[in-house]
Fold:
Amino acid sequence: MESTLLYFIDLFGTAVFAISGVLLAGRLKMDPFGVIVLASVTAIGGGTIRDMALGATPVFWVKDTLYISIILITCLLTIIVVRRPKRLAWWVLPVCDAIGLAVFVGIGVDKALQHQSSPMIAVIMGVITGCGGGIIRDVLAREIPMILRSEIYATACIVGGVIQTIALETDMNKDSALLAGILSTLIIRLGAIKWHLSLPTFALHR
Amino acid sequence: MESTLLYFIDLFGTAVFAISGVLLAGRLKMDPFGVIVLASVTAIGGGTIRDMALGATPVFWVKDTLYISIILITCLLTIIVVRRPKRLAWWVLPVCDAIGLAVFVGIGVDKALQHQSSPMIAVIMGVITGCGGGIIRDVLAREIPMILRSEIYATACIVGGVIQTIALETDMNKDSALLAGILSTLIIRLGAIKWHLSLPTFALHR
Amino acid sequence: MESTLLYFIDLFGTAVFAISGVLLAGRLKMDPFGVIVLASVTAIGGGTIRDMALGATPVFWVKDTLYISIILITCLLTIIVVRRPKRLAWWVLPVCDAIGLAVFVGIGVDKALQHQSSPMIAVIMGVITGCGGGIIRDVLAREIPMILRSEIYATACIVGGVIQTIALETDMNKDSALLAGILSTLIIRLGAIKWHLSLPTFALHR
Structure:
């Protein structure tokens, strides 16, 4: 995969994740600053934890300010668009989110391996990159993070990350492995959205 | 501005932010350790995230233990004073908080620029330094962070940070720019307290 | 103390802390991924914050993947065992938790001192290592962290950490000091469990 394309999709994922933060902020009646904070933590929270844990500092959005610019523009546009009655089809946001998620995981795995992490740690860093932001968003909004509860969301990330690292171990070239991982995450996630798949929960009665 | 004076005001801000943590802990009936934790995260949480994101580690309070000492002494004194009936005027705490906030933002911007951040990132680091601690405090206390909702709080930080970075870009000397930024944040915040100013919120109905 | 033994007890503590995360996840009816996340943050959250604040990156579980493996195995075993009716005596988990806590604190103090922290910071890092994971676990589960409220939990960590650093200052050798600290934390915590000791809370009425 050409790295320019990957970078473009990464920015696309940043924008989509920011939108999900803006929408939650709107439901909680936050002021413009609250909107920006919730959009930002959703979009860059996962990658920030990953970079801090790897010691890859300054973190990515300090090095490349385009991420923050994208978030600010997204906030502005979302507020304007959402106030107008014209609606998006229900599946547009989840599908965009799935694309963003898949790319975030692939990039997280890739970055961890660049920092000499073991394959297992690379998968974990992929999951953190993909899911960390949404978890912080929900904590700030005082909700038990959705991701921890009932959907095949993180599971898609884990499978994608595992496939990417296995592909690398079997001497596939880096770009093909990345593509295989991203597509796996994306397909599983889209399937889960379409057929409302979820894992059985572990319920414990006191 | 003489750097000794700045350091003194920074410690003053640390104490004031710690007090706001102690008071919240008191309302939640926490034990002494909970009081110290809530005071500490409020006072040094923002700067800690800033330093971690910049890779300026060990973080500032590990390098200079006076911050922690100030927090511990503040906890002790606040508990003693608050238990006595003698009351402070209502405006004392908000005004002290505004002074602390303004200095924290200025220091955050300054530190980010020292670490070769771009102006936009410097403003963000200023806001994180000023607002991060209060957000963590509210998360631990299981409240939706006040800062995200309805007051000109973060906005004051953003304006102050922008003025400070613009002043530096226009070749103002570092101390004057810092002072201009701090005073801007302070004046806006004091105005917001006096006239109960707030930004319109972004409300989204499902 | 032989360092192999210490490492073994550290892994034991990791497993015990993971169990407490799994049990909370079960009460919240989380899916398998939620179980793993809650187990992981409980077991390695405190040490992760410590390493990030010290700048000891990549953090410990990135360098040594055995911690993550232990957590995954613990999740699996706990889910299987808990679903069976056979019950543990009430004191088994708290006592194991106390052992884990005591070792975590000792290791945290030790690691901070290795990174040239002052004694006060070392004690704080010990407390963060011991208590940080439980606090993050409770935040994710949307509870006000227990540790901040009503039990001699953090206090045991503080006393243990102080004894360890004082022992080192008085030229006791490193292993004896570590052992003295760990035993102090453990004894105080076991006493608090047995006699339901708690500190007076700081209650503030509006």
Q: What stands out?
A: The radius of gyration of chain A is 17 Å. Chain A has a mean pLDDT of 86. The helical segments of chain A are 3-27, 32-54, 60-63, 66-83, 92-114, 119-140, 154-169, 174-195. Chain A has one domain: 3-195.
